């Protein structure tokens, strides 16, 4: 991407999460007039744990961000390649083997969602308007018509293009289609973060400096992500480090089928939600070891959320005619966290749109062609990630049926025994 013409071209972005801020950063870098609106009043006061960025997301960010900001990102992220391979355990904490994930990029990096959002908010600078809740969007009829957003305080903003980067319940997508494109994926997630130092030495040793997936009966599961931007930094440059995680930390996400989740799991927060989650997994038969990381968590970090997924067929994704309103990221292809691809895909979308808009501004294509080309690529990219993430969701949910649960109870101990006999989990890469 090389900046070309500087003809006026105004873009309004609704939603300053990961995708909207990445888009704004790239457009600013190339001299576009852009404003991004987010309903949050502080970019740091947001939820979220760690996000995985594969090589294509890193390549996109390298082009969207100034080099100094990109260096700060690398200094604040931990390298997947530098830690031992991920493993899976059974519900009593017995190792079953190394996880081989289809599509996992060994050069991926992990970064706190808050850290990434703050870095991107820095890049967006004064283009970011906080506390700005969009309540409606529209466009003028006919070619060359402008797009418009209305906000809760009665103000409006308009541009040549309006981009909805407003997440899985996107107001922009609902305007374009009349209905949301995402649906509940069938799992309820409960997340928190626990410092490794707060675990017993034996449990710390069992989990190790690696991520793991623990599979239990009745469609329950636990992802435990290891994050340590100090010890496993991608770029060893302490002066550039901006990570909110400052020591070895486990970022965990328990998964329970929505069909059997209690009202308390959906409604509680903090300490009560942590205790209900531990009780729910214990009732499903889980042993003490894998529950320790939940029990020792900082209660202020515990929250539950419903997994949402966007369309799994290309023809159902972004099926509106290309024009001056479009959308990207979870607004179009909501992605359960089970593939670790949601943020990276939103960033690649942003890069794709910046590339096409540069060509439109330079006059080598029309705005409609730019948007259409961007949306076509996004349909294929988005469908690949919704299917990848649902493959894991479906495997977990398969264990929720009485037959699936019985199979889990019978087969995993045998696998654990054979893993122990063959000593397959080495803890080294
Ligand atoms: C609070 C939170 C925590 C998350 N935690 C994780 C995690 O731990 N692991 C993981 O893999 N993924 C997580 N995700 C999902 C992940 O961030 C997304 O999959 C990914 O970043 C896609 O980015 P996006 O920009 O499309 O959507 P998001 O990053 O979700 O951003 C959407 C933005 O739109 C804003 N918005 C929505 N409606 C309006 C409106 N009407 N007006 C103005 N602004 C609006 C929201 O405030 C939000 O900032 C989380 C998302 C959120 C919102």
Automatic annotation (TrEMBL):
Top-rank taxon of the source lineage equals Bacteria
- Database matches in InterPro entries: FAD-bd, FAD/NAD-bd_sf
Q: Which UniProt keywords apply?
A: FAD, Flavoprotein, Monooxygenase, Oxidoreductase
One GO MF term, please? monooxygenase activity
List residues of the FAD-binding domain.
308-366
Protein name per Swiss-Prot or TrEMBL: FAD-dependent monooxygenase
């Amino acid at each position: 991407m090389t900046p070309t013409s500087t003809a006026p071209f105004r873009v309004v972005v609704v939603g300053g999460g990961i995708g909207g801020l990445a888009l704004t950063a790239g457009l600013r870098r190339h001299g576009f007039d852009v404003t991004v609106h987010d309903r949050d009043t502080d970019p740091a006061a947001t939820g979220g744990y760690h996000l995985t960025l594969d090589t294509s997301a890193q390549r996109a960010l390298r082009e969207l961000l100034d080099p100094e900001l990109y260096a700060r990102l690398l200094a604040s992220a931990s390298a997947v390649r530098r830690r031992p391979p991920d493993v899976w355990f059974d519900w009593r904490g017995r190792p079953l083997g190394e996880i081989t994930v289809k599509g996992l990029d060994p050069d991926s990096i992990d970064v706190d969602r808050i850290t990434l959002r703050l870095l991107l908010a820095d890049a967006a600078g004064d283009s970011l308007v906080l506390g700005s809740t969009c309540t409606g969007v529209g466009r003028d009829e006919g070619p060359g018509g402008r797009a418009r957003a209305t906000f809760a305080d009665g103000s409006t903003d308009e541009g040549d293009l309006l981009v909805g980067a407003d997440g899985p319940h996107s107001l922009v997508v609902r305007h374009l289609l009349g209905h949301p494109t995402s649906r509940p994926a069938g799992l309820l997630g409960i997340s928190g973060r626990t410092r490794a130092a707060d675990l017993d030495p034996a449990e710390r040793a069992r989990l190790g400096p690696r991520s793991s997936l623990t599979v239990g009966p009745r469609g329950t599961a636990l992802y435990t992500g290891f994050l340590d931007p100090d010890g496993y930094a991608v770029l060893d440059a302490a002066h550039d480090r901006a990570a909110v995680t400052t020591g070895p930390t486990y970022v965990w996400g328990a998964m329970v089928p929505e069909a059997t989740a209690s009202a308390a799991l959906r409604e509680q927060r903090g300490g009560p939600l942590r205790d209900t989650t531990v009780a729910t997994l214990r009732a499903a038969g889980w042993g003490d070891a894998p529950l320790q990381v939940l029990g020792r968590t900082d209660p202020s970090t515990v929250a539950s959320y419903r997994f949402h997924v966007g369309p799994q067929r290309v023809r159902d994704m972004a099926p509106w005619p290309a024009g001056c309103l479009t959308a990207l990221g979870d607004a179009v292809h909501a992605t359960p966290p089970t593939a670790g691809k949601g943020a990276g895909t939103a960033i690649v979308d942003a890069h794709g749109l910046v590339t096409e808009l540069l060509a439109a501004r330079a006059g080598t294509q029309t705005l409609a062609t730019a948007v259409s080309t961007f949306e076509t690529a996004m349909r294929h990219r988005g469908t690949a990630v919704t299917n990848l993430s649902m493959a894991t969701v479906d495997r977990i949910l398969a264990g929720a049926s009485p037959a699936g649960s019985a199979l889990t109870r019978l087969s995993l101990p045998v696998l654990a025994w054979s893993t122990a006999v063959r000593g397959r989990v080495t803890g080294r890469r």
